Amino acid sequence: MNFIEFVKRYPDEASCIAHFRAIKERQGIVCKKCGSREHYWNTTYNSHDCKRCRYRLTLRSGTVMESSKLPFQYWLYAIYLMTMTKKGISALELQRQLGHKRYEPIWAMMHKLRSVMGIRDEQYDFEGVVELDDAFFKTHSEEKDDEPPKRGRGSQGQSKVVVMAKVEPKVGRPKKHKKSSSFRYVKMVVVPDSSALTVNQAVQGGTRAVTTIKSDGWRGFNRLSEIVSKHVRRTVKPEEASKVLPWVHTMISNAKRALLGINHQVKADYLQNYLDEFCYKVNRRYFGKELFDRLIVAAVADTWYGKARYNCG
């Protein structure tokens, strides 16, 4: 759906309310008080009122929009721009386009939507062949550190991330200058440290036991054989890593470029949200206009509320 079609379909607040209402009714309305499924629409309060006990369930209740005072049109426009723009959009740019006076509500809205993306991707676990590597993303922290600056792993101003890329080996001999496997999906998990136990927990949360993990010889991957059926570990030189694990390094590079190009500087507390957005869009890169509709459904689903894993402001 291009921008002209979007404007024609959702020209005002009423059309946006009607769209969110239709999706919620399609999912099914259940009274929180008595469990009844019979409701009528209250146009005064934009709510579904229970026919049995008169309990009022607002259109925002149980969704990503709960407790938000922003117009429904803002939410729909944000979902459109976050899904239909290839490189994404910053909160400052969205604020400018919406003409909203304050930055913070727009910033919080976008982080809530990123959290929805992360929760949706959590439903899918990898199996088969998975390339695994660790990465360090430059982040900003407001906490003052009196220690002298460090270099390399564990240095200040960097957040540790475990990256998994689901791949499918190609049949036959690969062509010259072509990768020997095809890329399918990616997961990125921010971790507090580089211990083998922490890495195992991150990998176990995103893969199934029948997975074959391919990694380099870093000591943080020492215990992966405890949680997966097969661990192919290979010690490689830094300059050869992109050849041995091509897709996971491609995803790391793409994610870093995306964050640097749009947001310039990311706080460590919110890095996972930004990575969730990147992975969500990469994993659904062939969805086209369906990506917009899918995120709306996920945002309206009543299973969202209370499950946001990361600080959304």
From TrEMBL:
InterPro entries assigned: Tnp_ISXO2-like
Domain of life according to the entry: Bacteria
Bias (Basic and acidic residues): 140-150
Region entry Disordered, spans: 140-160
Record-annotated membrane-spanning stretches: none
ISXO2-like transposase domain mapped to chain residues: 125-283
A Pfam short name: DDE_Tnp_IS1595
Protein's recorded name: ISXO2 transposase-like protein
Organism per entry: Anseongella ginsenosidimutans
